[in-house]
Amino acid sequence: MVPIKVVIADDHKIFRHGLRLSISVSERLAVIGEAEDGEALMNLLNIEEADVVLLDLKMPKLDGFAASERIRAEFPDVKIIILTMYDDEQFIIRLMENGANGYLVKNTDPEEIIEAIITVFETGYYFSDLVSNTLLKKVIRKDTSQTSKLQKTFTDKELEILQLICEEYTSPEIGKKVFLSPRTVEGIRAKLLEKTGARNTVGLVIYAIRTGLFV
Description:
Strand order of the largest sheet: 2-1-3-4-5
Distance between the termini: 37 Å
Order of helices and strands: EHEHEHEHEHHHHHHH
Structural class: alpha/beta
CATH superfamily of the largest domain: Response regulator
CATH architecture of the largest domain: 3-Layer(aba) Sandwich
Strand content: 5-15%
Helix content: 40-55%
């Protein structure tokens, strides 16, 4: 099995070293590079084909906010997990809605960091308890009076696939459940992104929960 290629971006060398040692115990993961600032990260991504970036927010030259936006624009297939000391709800909401695939604080157990990397690589996102609770408190403001109207916006098949996406199934897994090819599922996923205005799978999940499509 080809390992998941990981890049660590953080301005503290000791933390990078400790994180590398912690996640390297997993045979599924391979740390292929480190960056001490946002500019160095972008240069590294131009050289190495990374699958997942562990990204700190507070870095010199190009901070995590700006770096995540550039990664989304220049390397759309790279998954981003924010790994920072900040658990501010506004940071979490802003970053998840703008394309981060996961958000963890730095005191997270190494086992969960490994799980998050594998999960975002396989499904596109990882909702830690911190993110889930934040979304429930801040992002999700269900307007149930609009739910019925919103449901009419989507076909039955689109709603079925959206629900399976929210349950963290991959496209091949969804295809088996609804008897469609993975390519057809991806086509429906693209249509859902267009209809909801979401940027990625995380956005779809946030949209579905916020609007009360699935209770």
